Fold:
Amino acid sequence: MIVTPISRRYRVFGGIAALALFATYLHVRPQWKEAPFEYAREYYHSVKDYLGSPVYNNTLYSEGNKQTVNQYYNSSNPCANFPNTDGVLLVMKTGATEAFDRIPTHLLTTLNCLPDFLIFSDMEQQVGPYHIYDALAEFEESAKAHNEDFDLYRDQKECPVSQKSCVDAKRDGQKAWNLDKYKFLPIMEQTWKMRPGRDWYIFAEADTYVFWANVMHWLKKESGLNHREKLYLGSRSFIGGTPFAHGGSGYIISGTLLKHLIEYHPGMVKQYNVKGAHECCGDLMLAQALEEYEDVKVRQIWPMINGEKPSTLPYGPGHWCEPIMTMHHMNAEEISSVWQYEQTRTTDSTLLIKDLYEGLIQPKMQVTRQNWDNLSDDVCYINRDPHAQLRAEGHLRDRQKDENDMNDVEKEAWKSPENCAKVCGSQDVPDEEEWDLHGIAERTSNDPSTANDTEVAEDTSPSDAAAREAWKKSMNEKKRNRSCFQYRWHEEVCCTAKSFKLGAPKAAPDEDNLNARWTSGWHLKGINDWIEAMGECTKPEWKSPDPS
Structure:
């Protein structure tokens, strides 16, 4: 084939162009590999992690809890370890004035993993795809008409904008409380109508946190209870001699009991709707109805069902190896933190009260905090001056130790925070190192001319070893029986506590009134001595319900 000059020129030009492109590639290839590609790859992985399997720094992880929580928080599958809740229904109660402050956090945490639940309020509302039912929708108009407890209920319905805009939380807080008591029994009735036939019904407030793994394990394996029996379980309180399950702590009712209460006594709810105007509390009225119509009283499972939260739990004797099932007075941030703690624990063992302390509270413990109330009020020491006595709160005066029973340290405790701190310090017991020093000194004094440190250390007779073990046992017993862990000082009132709690901040006083300041302190040596003497919890101390 004859190749024309033009075709030949094209071929030459094409070859030159190819060589030029190849040379350019060789020149830019190192930069291309090292900068743009690496940047693109890192960007790709960050987007992939964010959208697919997000892993973040665990904000709970700190110097004091590195052994109890993971350093990173993988939130990609929050329900992976959530228990099977078949046969159990959560019923949550809130109020229109607080629903949008409290409910969304539940929906992002525990409720996100429940296959079904009900939320009741004193107004019908919608939070995203979740519906909140009006517990008072079927309340008789005649019972509401002349009852000022329902003023807030009517005002809420007339509000043309958000409830937050219409309601003054401080002014209307008592109104919301007064209205709340009417919801308890109507919620029972509506729950049975909407979700009949469940084995167990767990009723909780919007500021209650439920530890579902513990609840389900206890109900199915540890409690020995049968849902076919009429059972009413909770943290028992009393008003006027009547026992009832504290509503804020949460309570559990068997399906059989709920069925009997609603189906066998059709006029019961209306009767108590009217009675509510003369009673203080809805959880009390529920207990009254259960006793009147079903002859059932609450059975105690405290401290597993608990009215405190991590910062107010009284850690120590009676609150340590027990599993925790509910907590109360939890704000949105606290609910989120406890959920995150459950998600990032380094173990899947039963969560004990002890674990809450080690994971959430221990890292925040310190010797003292100013403008802080650590809730110490078990034993008090108050200036005996009549004016100081009158200034002190009545329940603190009632907890004063008899002056005849005080030691010298206790008699001076009211004078200052420093004096107050000495009360717990006076209960300290020697450590094992102090036994060594005592033993060396004693042996050396017997024959100072011949003894030296090496000989004394090696000269340990069987009787010495036995004495040492007996001494250690005695000291450990004293550490376990310690009755002072922390103190609080305010206006010449020193109070100590038989447990250890974190507490909450207090407003700072005027600079010219130092007596009005709040000083809280923790005797960390005593706390750590007690923890060490207690040792590991060999097994969870599940509580069996007390007889009703």
Q: What stands out?
A: DSSP finds 21 helices and 21 strands in the chain.
